[in-house]
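User: Predict the structure for this protein chain, please.
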Amino acid sequence: MSKTNRLDWSRQVTLMNERIKSFQANPGQEQLDAVIQEMQAYAEAARNGGIEIPTRFTVN
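Assistant: Here is the predicted structure, written as structure tokens:
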């Protein structure tokens, strides 16, 4: 996985985590819908090859 691909993947995961934290802090339908939409977009990108998911990674 290239450094650029890893950075793209990392950004996507960060955005998804931010949406989840927003939902946890203020549970509501709007936040839930945003989390679901973000997760669906991530899954679709992984399915169609739009994002490369590393086989393993290390959190710093």
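The chain has one domain: 3-57.
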